[in-house]
Amino acid sequence: MPSRANEKRDIRPAPPDHAVQGLLALPLARLLPLSAGDRITGYGQTGDYILAAAVQGNPTISAYNRYALLDPGQAYLLVEPGEYVLQAVSGGLCFLLQLRGELVSRLLGDRLAEGGALFHGGAAAVREAALSLAVLEDEQGQAPGATASALAYAMLLKLRNLPRSLRTDAGSPLVEAAVSLIQAEFPFLEGVEELAERLEVSAAHLGRVFTKKIGISPGKYITRVRVEYAKLLLRDPDITISYAAEASGFANANYFAKVFRRETGLSPSEYLEGAPRRPAENIPHFGI
């Protein structure tokens, strides 16, 4: 099973080949559980992009005259920041990615203003890329550079398609907290009762507010997050169906297969037959 999200970890994929490196590289991903007041410093040189994401809690990210206070679920991209500082205003969980290559500006150029860009809801895409690299490192010792580039490319596409503003309404703070907790802990959550207990509300109240805001129940949302993560794992040819089931939070492979078919219309084996098992092969053909 992949490392728990509450464990601090640095992931350093192997460099991709020269042709891919010029397009897009992801040399570092950091999983950062933080306590209030914790301070993380780094340096982004010419050509670097630093992407910070808040899954839980409220961190600040700053460099020179650029500063952002992130709410749970938000991500912020710094362009060639030089020295930067990530600091936790409250305890939580953050992800920090270092990116290089011309595709970052080509994909997100219209979102970048004055050296930075805020992405509402972007933390989920950042988290997915980072935890996928953690799985690959656990399995192979070091994540392949080309695969890291493929994951970064998929993440950038998701960020590009996010809305530029976020509407809020009554009940959204609770829902945002629930979504952040699900994104961080879905492999380990026992279910909606545990989710509600950790949010200090009743399961019935959480269900009503969550369904009104998101359109589906929190239990259904947890299931969909697990299935999407399992689909991502199954694209790796070295990962078994049993491992994907366990790593995604399902009790056993049989139950996983039942839920997977209900959500996708395919069994895990049928999905494998048509899934792109080696996303790295598509890297030279970005075609932007």
The main sheet orders its strands as 1-2-9-4-7-10
Distance between the termini: 35 Å
Q: Which word captures the global form?
A: globular
Output the helix-strand order: EHEEEEEEEEHEHHHHHHHHH
Helix-and-strand structural type: alpha+beta
Which radius of gyration do the C-alpha atoms yield? 19 Å
Low-confidence segments = 166-171, 277-288
Main sheet summary: 6 strands, antiparallel
Number of strands: 10
How much of the sequence is in beta strands?
15-25%
- Assembly state here? single chain
What is the helix fraction of residues, given as a range? 40-55%
Number of helices: 11
Overall pLDDT score: 84
List the helices and strands and how they pair.
Layout: E1 9-11, H1 18-23, E2 25-34, E3 39-44, E4 48-56, E5 59-63, E6 66-69, E7 75-79, E8 82-88, E9 92-100, H2 102-108, E10 116-119, H3 123-140, H4 145-160, H5 172-185, H6 192-199, H7 203-214, H8 218-234, H9 241-247, H10 253-264, H11 268-274
Antiparallel strand pairs: 1-2, 2-9, 3-8, 4-7, 4-9, 5-6, 5-8, 7-10
How would you portray this structure in words?
This protein is α+β, with helices and mostly antiparallel strands. Helix content is 43%, strand content 22%. The chain has a six-stranded antiparallel beta sheet with strand order 1-2-9-4-7-10. Strands 3-8-5-6 form a four-stranded antiparallel beta sheet, with no helix packed on it. Helix 2 runs parallel beside helix 4, helix 3 (123-140) packs antiparallel against helix 4 (145-160) and helix 8 runs antiparallel to helix 9 (241-247). The longest helix has 18 residues, at 123-140. Residues 166-171 and 277-288 have low confidence and may be disordered.
